[in-house]
Amino acid sequence: MATVCVLKIPTVQLITQRSSERVTSIPVKERVKVSQNWRRGRCRQGTLLKWRRNLMPWMQLEGGCLYLSQAEDIQAYQLCPDGSSLYCRPLAIFSGHEEDVCRFVLASSHVVSGGGDGKIGLHKVNGTFSIKFSAHEQEVNCVDCQGGVIVSGSRDRTAKVWSLSSSQLGQCLHTIQTEDRVWSIAISPLLSSFVTGTACCGHVSPLRIWDLTSGQLMTHLGRDFHRGAGVLDVLYETPSTLLSCGYDTYIRYWDIRTSSQKCVMEWEEPHDSALYCVQSDGNHMLASGSSYYGVVRLWDRRQKGCLHAFSLSSPTSSPVYCLRFSTTHLYAAVASALHVLDFKTP
Questions:
Q1: Which UniProt keywords apply (predicted)?
Q2: What pLDDT, on a 0 to 100 scale, did the predictor assign at position 158?
Q3: In 3D, which of 10, 16, 6 has the Cα closest to residue 92?
Q4: pLDDT, position 21
Q5: Pairing of strands 130-134, 119-124
Q6: How far apart are alpha carbons 188 and 195 in whole angstroms?
Q7: Do residues 59 and 68 make contact, with C-beta atoms less than 8 angstroms apart?
Q8: According to the 3-state scheme, what is the secondary structure of the chain?
Q9: Nearest-CA neighbor of 314 among 40, 21, 51, 31?
């Protein structure tokens, strides 16, 4: 049953319009310089935020706002014009979970979150509307939302499909028995299917694609995965191509038009560290977050080896839990801090 939860919003309105993105205002000469900085690994490291206790933060970047989960809350911060700093007072705080937020997405002017309390939260970005509903018997490890549909994955070895329509909100459309803990999930841009990344303890392949309408299994990706080669992050680049990474230390690039049995390309983390997250600029550049020492790696998909590596300063060794790109900056969240790599003014 859906229940109302608390939403704390300061009087300042969230800035989400695309005009706050200053990418289009960067002159061509400056863009070329920034591109060279990315390729050569020239950047200036900075710390945007620090907090006292270790967390597993997640974030999203939308326009001039950076959304960051911290324990039970999701906080929205306005980035400063230079992109290398932010205003410390949050523009909004989205609350309601009784345990830590595991992951969240931004969709249709809403923040959709999954929490350790087994609930899904839905918050209006600019408004007071906010609800939560019981979704799984254990923590909701991952969520995605597109086309009026929410998908969720849980430690309880199920994935579920939910309607976002006001008349069916909180109503489960499909429950899929994955026979394995679900760590990551993503809806195809065509809105016809979704992919789950599981722990690889109860099925041959940790990557499976399901029909969004019927909930039926369509195909699985890859074979000969080692037991425990769980997929911690997965994202679609196009309707037919996607990236995955996880405990087996590989980034994999899949093209389901050519083969579902073998990935098109793969890149191995050179220090045998698990990969918690992967991001793409939609062109040649990839970024990954490793499980030790806050290591962020940049990859050129035209090459096999790592292009550059950056060790983010941290009091203790921490995974990079989440990464986000802009044209000029890379933002990385570790256990006790939010870092930025500035490729515009190194």
A1: WD repeat
A2: 97
A3: 10
A4: 40
A5: antiparallel
A6: 8
A7: yes
A8: CEEECCEECCCCCCCCCHHHCCCCCCCHHHHHHHHHHHHHCCCEEEEEEECCCCCCCCEEEECCEEEEEECCEEEEEEECCCCCCECCCCCEEECCCCCCEEEEEEECCEEEEEECCCEEEEEECCCCCEEEEECCCCCEEEEEEECCEEEEEECCCEEEEEECCCCCCCCEEEEEECCCCEEEEEECCCCCEEEEEECCCCCCCCEEEEECCCCCEEEEECCCCCCCCCEEEEEEEECCEEEEEECCCEEEEEECCCCCCCCCEEEECCCCCCEEEEEECCCCEEEEEECCCCEEEEEECCCCCEEEEEECCCCCCCCCCEEEECCCEEEEECCCEEEEEECCCC
A9: 51
Phi, psi (degrees; rounded to nearest 5) at 130 = -160, 125
CATH numbers and ranges of domains, the chain: 41-57+135-342 (2.130.10.10)
Phi, psi of 28 (to 5 degrees): -60, -45
**Residue 54 pLDDT:** 94
Q: Which pLDDT does position 25 carry in this prediction?
A: 64
Which parts of the chain have pLDDT scores under 70? 1-25, 203-204, 314-315
Contact 206, 229 (CB under 8 A): yes
Nearest to 326 by CA among 74, 43, 111, 75: 43
Burial of 52 per CB tally in 10 Å (0-12, 13-18, 19+): exposed
At position 18, the amino acid (one-letter code) is: R
Q: What is the pLDDT of residue 15?
A: 43
CA distance 60 to 340: 14
- Tell me which residue has tokens 């923040």: 111
302-311, long-range: CB < 8 A, 24+ apart: 304/267, 305/267, 305/270, 306/267, 306/270, 307/39, 307/41, 308/41, 310/41, 310/43, 310/45, 310/341
- Whole-structure pTM value: 0.91
